[in-house]
Amino acid sequence: MDSMALISRAETAHELTQSELLQLLQDQHINDALFAAADRVRQKYVGPEVHLRALIEFTNICCNNCLYCGLQSQNRAITRYRMAPQEIFALAQKAVQYGYKTVVLQGGEDPFFTADILVPLLRQIKGLGLAVTLSIGERPRSDYQRFKEAGADRYLLRIETTDPALYEKYHPGMSLANRLRCLQDLKELGYETGTGVLVGLPEQTELSLARDILFFKQLGADMIGLGPFIPNPDTPLKDAPVPRLTPALKVMALARLLLPDINIPATTSMETLEAQGRFKALQSGANVIMPNITGEEERKNYALYPGKNASMPSARARRQLEAQLKAAGRPVSAGYGWHHKSR
Ligand code: SAM
After folding, report:
1. 68 lines ligand 1 (CB under 6 A)
2. Cα(197)–Cα(267) distance, rounded to whole angstroms?
3. CB burial class (10 A; 0-12, 13-18, 19+) of residue 239?
4. Ligand 1 site, residue 269, Cβ cutoff 6 A
5. 193 lines ligand 1 (CB under 6 A)
6. What is the atom index within ligand 1 of the atom nearest the CA of 136?
7. Which atom of ligand 1 is closest in space to residue 197's alpha carbon?
8. Strand 154-156's sheet: what is its strand order?
9. Cβ atoms of residues 253 and 38 within 8 Å
10. What gap in Å lies between CA 269 and CA 290, rounded to an integer?
11. Does residue 325 contact residue 331 with C-beta atoms inside 8 Å?
C-alpha cells in the first residue's frame, strides 16, 4: 500500500504490521504527514494539555556498564555523587512548591538504594500528595512489589533495543531476557509502565526499530520515552556518528499512532540534539515534559551525553515554560496525568 494511505489507515485503526512500519521508517517523503497524523491522534486521545513531571537525578553511581552511557561504571571522568534520602525528600518538597504533581526519581543502578532505604522515602514523598515515578533499573520482583506497596505509581525502564544481538553487544553482563522479565513484573504489579529505546545506535537497523515499536504495543506500555543516542566522549561509543533527530521523531510518531492514548515525553536528548527539538516532539505526538529539578552540581555530573541539562530548576523556569507552552496552544495540565485507557 502507498505510504500516505498507510498513515491514514493507522490514524484510525491504530494498527501497522512490521513490514508497513518498515516502509514508513524508510520512506523519507512522508515525514511531515506522519508527524501531522501523530499530532492529530495526540489531540484526539489525550488533548492539548502537557503534563510536567519533575525529574530528580538522585545518584550517578551505577554498577552496569552500558557502552553508550556516561554513567557506566568504567567511566572515571565524572565525579560520582549520591544524594541522601533527606536531600531527595527536600527536592520533592520543592517540586510541590514549584507546582508539580509528579516526581520522577531516576538514577544509576546504585546498590546503596536498597528497598529498605527506598520504601520509607517513598512513603514520605507520597505523604506530599505527589505521584511518584521510579526509574532505577533492573530489580528483583520483590523490590518492585515493595515499592508499589509503598506508593510508587509508575516505572520507567527502557528496553533500549529489542534486537538481541545489539542488546548483548551494548550491555555487557546484562541480558535482554531479564529486562523483559522486569517489564513484565512491572505490568503485572499494576505500575503505569514506561519503556522506550535509543534511536541511532551504531548497527541498529530500521527493521529493528519496526520490531521495537511492535514490542511497545505488545507490552501494552502506558508511557513511551525514547530519544536519539548521542555519543558520549567518555564511553567506548565516543566515535559513533551523531544521529539526526528525525528518525527518533518518526519512531515516536509511529508509537503515538499505534498506542494513541498513552503518555509520551518530549525527551531531553531530543532538545539536546536540535534547538526546538522539544517543541518539534510536542508537535509530533508528545504530551509530557520532564523538567530537571536536580541541583546544579549534581546535574553537571549526571552526564549521560554531552550538552544535557540546560534547564534551570526554579519556579521561574517553570513559569517561563508554562507561558511558552500556552502561547503554542498547549496548556500545562493541573492534574496527575494518568494514563486513561480509551480502548
Ligand atoms: N539506570 C536506569 C535504567 O537503566 O533504566 C535509569 C537511568 S539511565 C542513565 C536513563 C536512560 O539514559 C537510559 O534508559 C538510556 O536510554 C539513556 N541514555 C544513556 N546514555 C545515553 C546516550 N549516550 N544518549 C542518549 N540517551 C542515553
Report:
1. yes
2. 12
3. exposed
4. yes
5. no
6. 2
7. 16
8. 54-59, 102-107, 131-135, 154-156, 192-195, 223-224
9. yes
10. 11
11. yes
pTM: 0.97
Report the distance separating Cα 185 and Cα 264, nearest Å.
21
pLDDT of residue 117: 98
What's the rounded Cα separation, in Å, for the pair 43 and 47?
4
pLDDT of residue 343: 66
Alpha-carbon distance 34 to 246, whole Å? 11
pLDDT score, position 313: 61
Residue type, 206: E
Task: Give the C-alpha separation, 230 to 161, whole Å.
Answer: 15
Instruction: Please work out whether the CB of residue 134 comes within 6 Å of at least one atom of ligand 1.
Output: no
The segments of the chain whose pLDDT lies below 50 read: none
- The residue whose C-alpha atom lies closest to atom 5 belonging to ligand 1 is 137
Report d(CA 111, CA 137) in Å as an integer: 11
Q: Which residue has the cell 506522519?
A: 34
State the burial class of residue 56 (Cβ atoms within 10 Å of its Cβ: 0-12, 13-18, 19+).
buried
Q: How many CB atoms lie within 10 A of CB 188?
A: 12
* Structure-block grid coordinates of residue 15: 494498527
Residue 232 CB contacts under 8 Å (≥ 6 apart), including other chains: 68, 69, 70, 238, 303, 304, 305, 306
Long-range CB contacts (< 8 A, 24+ apart) of 210-214?
A: 210/18, 210/19, 210/21, 210/22, 210/25, 211/18, 211/162, 211/163, 212/159, 212/161, 212/162, 212/163, 212/251, 213/16, 213/21, 213/251, 213/254, 213/255, 213/258, 214/18, 214/21
The backbone torsions φ and ψ at residue 288, rounded to the nearest 5 degrees and listed phi first, read -135, 145
pLDDT at position 258 is 98
